[in-house]
From TrEMBL:
The keyword Hydrolase does not apply. The keyword Cell membrane applies. It is found in: Cell membrane. This is DUF2723 domain-containing protein. Keywords: Cell membrane, Glycosyltransferase, Membrane, Transferase, Transmembrane, Transmembrane helix. The chain crosses the membrane at residues 43-62, 74-93, 99-117, 126-145, 151-182, 189-209, 248-268, 275-294, 300-317, 329-346. Pfam families: TMEM260-like (PF11028). It comes from the Bacteria. It is a multi-pass membrane protein.
Length: 419
């Protein structure tokens, strides 16, 4: 019972952190499109790579239940799923390490990791998606560490559900198949797990095809050629992408990156089966995210970051690092680290130039500080007809439509600017 109280405490703490630092105004990026869909209240009926069927429909359901507007319903879902994910990380590490301090530290490190913290404070699909992915890994580890084999079935269910949130999770299918291979003798659970996943996965295609969409529609989009572009880079660009991915990793996990690496080494030595499941997941997700040809590819690393956080906990729990228990509180200084890094870069000439170039959406604050309170808003930017030194029309198109919708409900320009 104590471990659940600790998980509940972590949920409450991070709910307060994420809520208090959450966006003041609708941020730049895809955020306004999601809020617009939520405000319209029209349930998604197709599941393509960009509709994020389960996410938007969950927001609309919350909006209808609570009476909140699209913005606040989105905030509630994102902050809640963010805090819940931190708790799941804690419970998962506790299941494999049986060590309280290492589990709590890993959860805190993940909760404060830049990419996850940032996405827990804006209107995006990735926090909600990470919650379902974390449940999948929770069920996987529980299947290995406990005799309750029903977790084998839950692994298939959670992974299947996650595909309805974000199709990127097909990258976890190889890991799921490796996982099932190790439990093939547990036929009572092996087949139901495979069946549950298969039905949930197949339903994506059935839903779309029944409405006249092409068979490939669940994993394709007519809004861009990102996948094709990913194969057209030069060798030098691939090297730069890989170096950038390491920079993301270190900025997310700082000094705890070492323990994440060591955790993988220790797992390989102690539990090869579990290691190969997570290796399959890591290679697919990390490889795709590293070379995917989009400017904000950092968000696609989040499923891998869940794995790495679990590895951090496993590494910390090793007897050789027991002495670190007394200074595990140091993870609470991670937010200070972001501020120091931000101030350091801001003092450089390149930092100043970048800050000025990106000033329209917050400059370095937007890129180096995870908290979003007091941020620049896309609606105000659009109403005031401001300009940016780079294309933003793909954001302002949705912003214009949302502004028109709000005006039809009686909002004035000044009221809209505050949203």
């Amino acid at each position: 019972m104590k471990k659940y109280l600790s998980a509940l405490f972590l949920f409450f703490i991070f709910f307060v952190i994420y809520f208090s630092g959450s966006f003041s105004k609708i941020p730049f990026g895809d955020c306004v499109g999601f809020v617009l869909d939520a405000e319209k209240g029209k349930l998604a009926t197709i599941a393509t790579a960009t509709t994020h069927f389960l996410y938007i429909n969950t927001v609309i359901l919350l909006k209808n239940i609570t009476g909140f507007n699209g913005i606040e319903a989105s905030r509630l879902l994102i902050v809640s799923s963010g805090a819940a994910t931190v708790s799941v990380i804690y419970l998962t590490v506790k299941s494999i390490t049986k060590t309280e301090w290492a589990s709590a530290t890993a959860a805190l490190v993940f909760g404060f990791s830049f990419s996850f913290w940032r996405n827990a404070e804006i209107v995006e699909v990735y926090t909600y998606n990470t919650f379902w992915v974390s449940l999948f890994f929770f069920a996987v580890i529980k299947s290995f560490t406990e005799h309750k084999k029903q977790y084998i079935v839950w692994a298939g269910i959670f992974l299947g559900i996650s595909l309805w949130v974000h199709i990127q999770n097909i990258l976890l299918i190889p890991a799921f198949l490796v996982f099932l291979f190790y439990f093939k003798s547990e036929k009572k659970y092996f087949y139901p797990s495979l069946l549950a996943f298969g039905l949930l996965f197949a339903s994506l295609f059935i839903l779309n095809v029944s409405q006249g969409l092409p068979f490939k529609s669940p994993y394709s989009s007519d809004q861009g050629t990102w996948v094709d572009d990913s194969f057209k880079k030069t060798f030098i660009q691939y090297i730069k992408d890989f170096i950038q991915s390491l920079a993301y990793l270190i900025y997310n996990f700082n000094v705890f990156t070492f323990f994440g690496v060591m955790g993988a080494v220790f797992l390989y030595k102690s539990n090869r089966k579990m290691f190969f499941v997570f290796l399959a997941a890591s290679l697919c997700v990390y490889g795709f995210s590293t070379f995917y040809a989009v400017s904000d590819n950092y968000v696609f690393f989040l499923p891998f970051n869940v794995i790495f956080a679990l590895s951090v906990g496993y590494g910390l729990a090793h007897p050789k690092y027991a002495v670190l228990k007394k200074i595990s509180w140091a993870c609470l200084l991670i937010p200070l680290g972001y501020f120091i890094a931000y101030q350091s870069v801001l003092q450089t000439e390149k930092g100043k130039v970048f800050h000025s170039f990106k000033k329209y959406k917050g400059g370095l604050d937007y890129y180096m500080l995870p908290w979003m309170n007091g941020n620049e808003g896309i609606l105000e930017f659009t109403i005031d007809k401001k300009t940016a030194p780079e294309p933003v029309n793909w954001m302002t198109v949705s912003a214009v439509e949302y502004i028109q919708l709000l005006k039809s409900k009686g909002y004035t320009d000044e009221e809209i600017k505050k949203l």
